[in-house]
Design goal:
Blueprint: H1 2-17, E1 44-47, E2 53-58, E3 74-79, E4 85-90, E5 96-98, E6 109-110, E7 116-119, E8 122-127, E9 130-135, E10 140-143, E11 148-150
Parallel strand pairs: 1-6
Antiparallel strand pairs: 1-2, 2-3, 3-4, 4-5, 7-8, 8-9, 9-10, 10-11
């Protein structure tokens, strides 16, 4: 009986020293950092009083749905008649005509003849001869019913 008691005490002591069984493995929580976001702005639009020319300003950093092809702000002007033309003036480079099937002309408040509009690096003037816009870098676009000039 002593032997049985000694074995029982030994089992009890050994079981007290045995580490507990590991808990079932579960995925540990991992802190996830939010993705870096780019500050986005809002589009701004204006038209010529005739409604034939419309320009859209995209601020540096773009918008939630559109990023300019080049870094920086962008100004896009569309002429609807007599033929459709789109001209893009980037903040950092010359204006250029863009071939497109999209027809986005014209919305926004009318910029009266003789008035100017400016945002970011761009300044536009409205006249009876059309709309002329320049960038801080000295590049420009000019649209009227007869011509689309860029530099």
């Amino acid at each position: 009986m002593r032997t049985l008691l000694a074995i029982s005490v030994l089992v009890f002591v050994v079981s007290g020293c045995t580490p507990p069984a590991p808990a079932p493995s579960t995925p540990s929580a991992v802190a996830v950092e939010p993705a870096a976001t780019v500050a986005t702005g809002e589009l701004e639009m204006f038209t010529s009083p005739s409604g034939n020319i419309g320009c859209t300003y995209v601020p540096s950093g773009g918008t939630a749905v559109y990023q300019p092809a080049q870094a920086g702000a962008e100004l896009t002007c569309d002429r609807s008649e007599p033929t459709y033309v789109r001209v893009v003036l980037p903040e950092n480079g010359p204006a250029h005509v863009v071939e497109t099937d999209e027809r986005g002309c014209c919305s926004g408040e009318a910029l009266a003849y003789g008035q100017t509009w400016s945002r970011g690096p761009f300044r536009c003037e409205s006249s009876e001869q059309g709309v002329t816009c320049t960038s801080a870098g000295g590049h420009r676009l000019s649209l009227n019913r007869e011509r689309a000039d860029v530099n």
